Amino acid sequence: MGEKDFVHGNDRLERMLERPGMADAVAALETEADELDRIHAMSLAMVREAGKRTQVEIAHELGISQGAVSQMERREDMLLSTLRSYITAAGAENPRAKIVRRSDPRHASARCAGSSSAENMKSPTIATVAAA
Q1: Which residue has the higher pLDDT, 6 or 57?
Q2: pLDDT tens digits for 2-56?
């Protein structure tokens, strides 16, 4: 591909947004992302309490000790698979994760919950998990 054929990412995005219905689809995803951000602001303990579960019940579901659940709830960083398992044990039926760049100012105050694979990415990431 020659330099003449190169398309800047922003130009490509602008063209994609011109497609019929695409801007509406993006707006719907942004609305969903805002809700995910709100949910992410909750601590894991708050998520557990919202699901009316105790640490002992979460521990039993995950096959770990109550103390390990307590430590998990205080962690600033964990694998996304661990986070998903915790959220599922707390009662979520279909948790989803959203990865965003930590440099995004909308997420400046969010707690970090990234995976080890995130360390290999160019920008640090945070994860947002929401129950459907």
Answers
A1: 57
A2: 667 888 888 888 888 899 998 898 888 888 888 877 765 668 888 899 889 999 9
127: enclosing H helix or E strand: strand 125-130
Give the residue from 120, 124, 115 showing the smallest Cα distance to 85.
115
20: tokens are 């019929």
Rounded Cα gap, residues 24 and 26, in angstroms: 5
CA distance 121 to 119: 5
Cα–Cα distance list, 109 to 13, 37, 128 (Å)? 28, 11, 13
One-letter amino acid identity for 2? G
Residue 75 and residue 86 in contact, taking contact as beta carbons nearer than 8 Å: no
By C-alpha distance, which of 74, 67, 65, 78 is closest to 45?
A: 74
Taking alpha carbons only, the member of 132, 123, 127, 116 closest to residue 41 is: 127
CA distance 97 to 117: 14
